Structure formats: structure tokens, C-alpha cells
Amino acid sequence: MSDGDFTERRKECAETRLARLEERLVASDRALELAKGEVDRRLNTMNEMREQINQERGSYVVRIEYEEKHKALLDKIDQRSEVVDNKLNDLKNFQYLIIGGVTVMQVVIGLLLHYWHG
């Protein structure tokens, strides 16, 4: 083998190695682009989810607000219940008055009938 053949052979090996390195570099660049695309897709999905959560969070009732409104409703129910109880007591008293009046009338009518015929 002569020096020229040896140098030619080394040159071919170097070119082959360089071609393989370039192929690997292209493959690495392609893999990097694919990975970047996947990361971007996931980040976009996370941003959409975060936006949805923020929108939903805005529609929830705050616990303090709920408790205040719930207490106001309970107070209103208590007031109305008290009014109903008072009216029921008034109706009971009126019923007793009617029963008492009817009883007195029965006694008076009984006495009148007893002494009038008698």
C-alpha cells in the first residue's frame, strides 16, 4: 500500500464518519424539534386547563358569602315562623272565645227554655 492509497483510504473513512455524524446531527435536530413540539403541546394543554379552572373558580360561591346568605335565610325563616306561631296562638284564643261564647249561649238558652215553659 502506498502513501497515496493510505491517505485516500483515510480520507474516505473521514468522509464516511463525517457523513454519519451529519446524519446523527440531523436526527438529533429532528428529535429535538419533536420533543419541543410535544412540550409546547403539553404547555398549551396546561394553560387551557388553568384558564378553565380560573373560569370555574369565578363561578363558585365564596364560603363566607354562602354563610352570610344562609344565616340571612335562617333569620328570615325564624321571623316567619314566629309570625305563624303568633297567628296560630291568636286563632287558638279566638277558638276558645267562640267555644266559651257558644257554651254561655247554650246555658242561657237552656235556662230560658226551662223557665219559660215552666
Task: Describe this protein's structure.
- The structure is a single chain.
- The protein has a domain at 1-60.
- By secondary structure, the chain is an all-alpha fold.
- The radius of gyration is 50 Å and the shape is rod-shaped.
- It has 2 helices and no strands.
- Helix content is 95%, strand content 0%.
SS class: mainly alpha
The helix content is over 70%
- What fraction of residues sit in β-strands? under 5%
Summarize the main sheet: none
Low-confidence stretches: none
Principal-axis shape? rod-shaped
Radius of gyration: 50 Å
> Count of helices?
2
Cα distance spanning the termini: 167 Å
Q: Order of helices and strands, N to C?
A: HH
Provide mean pLDDT, rounded: 89
Question: How many E-type strands?
Answer: 0
Layout: helices, strands, pairs:
Blueprint: H1 3-59, H2 63-117
Compose a concise summary of this entry:
With 118 residues, this protein is mainly alpha-helical. It is 95% helix and 0% strand.
Features:
about 120 residues; mainly alpha; about 95% helix; about 0% strand
